[in-house]
Design goal:
heterodimer, A: alpha+beta, B: mainly alpha, two-stranded antiparallel sheet, globular
Chain lengths: 358, 561
């Protein structure tokens, strides 16, 4: 009943077209993350679903009910949503309890029922003892919990979260990430989560939708799918640190800078246009003999891993290896030293989209 | 994009524009129209010819001298005392800082009245005292001169510079000065090369405010200058409108002079916005830090005495004079107990219709104007800050207008607009003063409410909507409680100055619509110095009580937040 479906939605601000013909569906009880760089229109989509903005075209349904499009525009207060904002939006003139109780004001529940619901949800987010405090007396993390409690207290069908963790420090962010996941399991609400933080997205979501800077949906899939089998270069590049090499094919034999490879790159191979091979830092290693010839540009010992920057065929590649492995093998190379690179895994992509550097 | 239907936001925008057009824009337009258009055709030559008349030219020159002199003197005094209380180890710094702000509360025309009583060439008490004491033939001081006007204006306007500069000095990053010190610069060099240049925007901002006010003030030059044929633009406008019985040439001269006032005010505000937006302010951070403090050593106590004497002369002496003169049985009697009586006050408060009416008029006019202006200001600020609709730029432009219109100009504008030209004649009624007050104080309301609204982030309102609140419910539960302090501040920012207003009301009052300021002024004109002083004393009491009330209200706000 909490299914959110967006169909053919478009939104422009003046001449700036933010979203065009965007469609996606969030299944009932699912935690769906919309991941994209800042300015890609993900927050706009969330605001469209919430009803703070009206789409120029397309339809939005929540729980099977048409809320936007075809001349309908259900105001936000009638959409039965919980929203958590990036800046928390906790009301400074109300106590934690009053903030949390506010959504119940518009329900028929009687007073004791209401008080119990508020105390219940405050206990869940770990603020049970702080009900009479004002937001100015709380830390950022605690304010975020108030916002969460307020969004959950009325048991909305759908919970919309707009980068709720980005204002928190790293430790708190990790902690809250798990808490949100727990709360969702407990409440069973459908979650639409918007973020540019791929770590949060991968850790939290049942499925992820990846938006490119132009506001187009590039891929939708489970965290594993999008991470392991990225649909295209854009998706691959957005998830983690990546490097690229120019690929040439001689029949089935792939070559880099004239050197034949001993592995078959994965993925479709478009017949025309230049191709690149993409990999993550741990998917290649430096070898003392063989491999594709390159030059070590920089070596940084980061502790458990060593971070190399290696030049191969005019491109700078980022390669990481476990420190113990490096020490056992060729030892720490000197900067400027020639070396060989062996790839464990390469994915082929059309190079057309690879502009502006990897 | 789908055409949007005409919704609430559009309606509010239209309403806001309409209010500003009627209250501010049309009156100003009428002034320019009357000044430069003759029989439907633009005529700048004849307008300029009017300005060349000797008495108008003289008024323009005096305005320049008084505004210039007041600005320079206020800047010197303001910067000096600001530096003294924020950068030296002057004893009782905190108390002195508060004391230097007191002149702000006092209406300058009441001060002028006191100084006239003390220092007018023949009858001034101090002059007489000095003449008796030293057997002099001629008076020592003449307050009724250009210099006298400059001196009195400075006493009440220098706090503008003082506030700006002391605030900036306290917020300035002390490491900027420490860095210079480490580089080997002496304190004098640091002050000249580092501190002063950094303070320049604040000093300029304060100085320009002084210039703006001294150019537009009516009270001081009217009380000290008119008798001696010293006119500045606002008093000349007053004279033209009153002395000539409203003939067309006089009104044209008035509108010409008003146009000059508007244009110079706009120029001053424009320069100020340039100064404030120049990036040099960035070295001054928002947090307060411990500034470098100069040890005054031997000068410590002499400088404190100087400050105390300054306050005593500019605040205590005039105030005491007003109260004492207000108790005299007849003006001119010596200040002896047998010559004093409280009957003057009871007479003014309860018996004399003229003064009783004036107090009552001022009260209900200020109260209603403050309430209405605050509400309209909130509405306009809401549209400006919170809505995203086309046509908003029009409101943004109109919203700047109230800031640049001096009180005299507003008065003349509403006379032109509400004297039957458009079928409504409010002349000689309280309504015309009410309308003028709204125009005059709109800027205060806009400033204070828009600042409050800007602090209420959109997401706070949206969060309420997402919780199930309707637009109006969200407004009531979230937006209004959060901007209430700003609205209360706006109310008092209008109520208190309106209570003692003179510049605008003096052009608009009718037989039964005198305000406190007008009554004091006309009583003084009529030679009723004792009653003028008594009423001024009552006004001072009301103002002080009002200030204390604000303090209480705003402090309660801070504590509850």
């Amino acid at each position: 009943m909490g299914r959110v479906s967006v169909e053919g939605v478009a939104k422009a601000y003046g001449p700036k077209r933010v979203l065009q013909d965007l469609s996606l569906a969030v299944e009932d009880g699912e935690c769906f993350t919309l991941l994209g760089p800042s300015g890609c229109g993900k927050t706009v989509l969330l605001r469209l679903v919430a009803g703070f903005e009206t789409p120029d075209a397309g339809e939005i349904t929540i729980g099977g009910r048409l809320v936007s499009g075809r001349g309908t525009n259900v105001p936000p207060e009638a959409r039965n949503l919980g929203v958590v904002f990036q800046d928390y939006a906790v009301w400074p003139h109300l106590t934690v309890r009053a903030n949390t109780a506010y959504p119940l004001k518009f329900r028929a529940d009687d007073a004791p029922q209401r008080a119990a619901a508020v105390q219940g949800v405050l206990d869940q987010v770990g603020l049970g003892a702080l009900g009479e405090r004002y937001p100015s007396q709380l830390s950022g993390g605690q304010q975020q919990r108030v916002a969460l409690a307020r969004a959950l207290v009325a048991h909305p069908e759908v919970l919309l979260l707009d980068e709720p963790l980005s204002n928190l420090d790293a430790n708190l962010r990790e902690e809250m990430r798990f808490e949100i996941k727990d709360l969702q399991r407990h409440h069973g609400a459908t979650i639409l989560y918007v973020t540019h933080d791929q770590e949060v997205a991968l850790a939290l979501s049942d499925r992820i939708g990846i938006l490119d800077p132009a506001g187009r949906l590039r891929q939708v899939g489970t965290p594993r799918e999008v991470f392991d089998q990225p649909a295209d270069l854009e998706v691959f590049r957005f998830l983690g640190v990546t490097s690229f090499v120019d690929l040439a094919f001689d029949g089935d034999q792939a070559r880099i800078a004239g050197t034949p490879l001993d592995l078959r790159p994965e993925g479709p191979r478009p017949s025309s246009g230049a191709l690149v091979g993409g990999f993550r830092p741990m998917e290649a290693e430096l070898v003392s003999e063989g491999g594709v010839p390159g030059t070590v540009k920089r070596v940084a010992l980061l502790g458990a891993v060593v971070d190399f920057r290696v030049e191969v065929g005019g491109r700078e590649l980022r390669i990481q290896q476990e420190t113990s492995e490096v020490m056992r093998g060729l030892g720490l190379p000197v900067e400027g030293q020639p070396c060989g690179v062996r790839f464990h895994r390469l994915r082929t992509f059309a190079a057309a989209a690879l502009s502006g550097g990897a | 994009m789908r055409p949007r239907r005409f919704g609430t936001a559009e309606l509010l925008l239209l309403l806001s524009i309409l209010i500003l057009v009627v209250v501010v824009a049309i009156p100003i337009l009428l002034i320019f129209w009357n000044a430069f258009v003759v029989e439907g055709k633009p005529d700048f030559l004849r307008a300029l010819a009017l300005l060349k008349e000797p008495d108008t030219l003289e008024a323009l020159k005096n305005s320049l001298v008084i505004a210039g002199g007041t600005t320079v003197l206020s800047t010197i005094i303001g910067v000096f005392f600001a530096w003294l209380v924020s950068r030296t180890d002057l004893p009782y710094k905190g108390t002195m800082k508060v004391l230097f702000l007191v002149p702000f509360m006092l209406p300058s025309f009441i001060g002028a009245l006191a100084w006239k009583i003390l220092l007018s060439p023949r009858g001034g008490h101090i002059n007489r005292l000095l003449m008796d004491l030293f057997h002099l033939e001629d008076p020592v001081f003449n307050i009724m001169s250009l210099g006298g006007i400059i001196a009195v204006e400075t006493m009440y306007l220098f706090p503008f510079v003082f506030i700006q500069v002391s605030g900036a000095l306290e917020r300035m990053d002390p490491t900027l000065e420490e860095a210079a010190r480490i580089s080997g610069a002496g304190l004098f060099t640091i002050t000249r090369r580092i501190t002063l240049p950094l303070m320049m925007p604040s000093i300029l901002a304060g100085a320009l405010l002084v210039a703006l006010y001294s150019l537009a003030h009516f009270g001081v030059p009217a009380i000290l200058g008119t008798e001696r044929n010293i006119f500045i633009i606002p008093t000349k406008i007053y004279e033209k409108i009153y002395a000539s019985g409203g003939n067309f040439e006089a009104i044209r001269t008035g509108t010409m002079l008003s146009s000059i006032l508007v244009l110079s005010a706009a120029a001053i505000l424009y320069i100020q916005s340039l100064v404030l937006s120049s990036g040099r302010f960035q070295v001054i951070s928002g947090k307060s830090m411990r500034p470098m403090v100069l040890k005054l050593r031997g000068l410590k106590w002499p400088l404190l005495i100087l400050s105390v004497v300054y306050i005593a002369l500019t605040v205590v002496l005039p105030t005491v004079t007003i109260f004492l003169v207000g108790t005299l049985k007849t003006y001119g009697l010596a200040f002896k107990l047998e010559n004093m009586t409280f009957d003057n006050f009871t007479y003014i408060l309860f018996k004399w219709e003229l003064t009783r009416d004036a107090i009552w008029n001022s009260f209900y006019l200020s109260l209603s104007a403050a309430a209405v202006t605050m509400l309209i200001g909130t509405l306009i600020s809401y549209v400006l800050v919170k809505t995203k609709i086309r046509g908003k730029f029009l409101l943004e432009f109109l919203g700047v207008l109230p800031f640049s219109v001096p009180g005299t100009v507003i008065a003349l504008g509403v006379i032109l607009m509400w004297s039957g030209r458009f079928g409504v004649n409010l002349y000689n009624t309280a309504w015309i003063i009410f309308v003028a007050y709204i125009a005059r104080y709109m800027a205060f309301a806009l400033k204070s409410t828009s600042a409050a609204l800007e602090q209420v982030h959109d997401s706070l309102e949206e969060a309420a909507r997402a919780c199930g609140a309707s637009k109006w419910q969200a407004m009531k539960d979230v937006v209004l409680p959060l901007i209430k302090p700003g609205m209360v501040a706006a109310f008092f920012l209008i109520f208190l100055p309106a209570l003692r207003e003179l510049t605008t009301s003096v052009l608009l009052y009718g037989p039964h619509t005198r305000t406190i300021g007008v009554a004091i002024y006309t009583l003084n004109e009529d030679g009723e110095t004792v009653y003028a002083a008594a009423l001024a004393a009552i006004a001072l009491v009301i103002i002080v009580l009002g200030q204390l009330l604000i303090k209480r209200v705003t402090r309660a706000k801070i504590e509850s937040a």
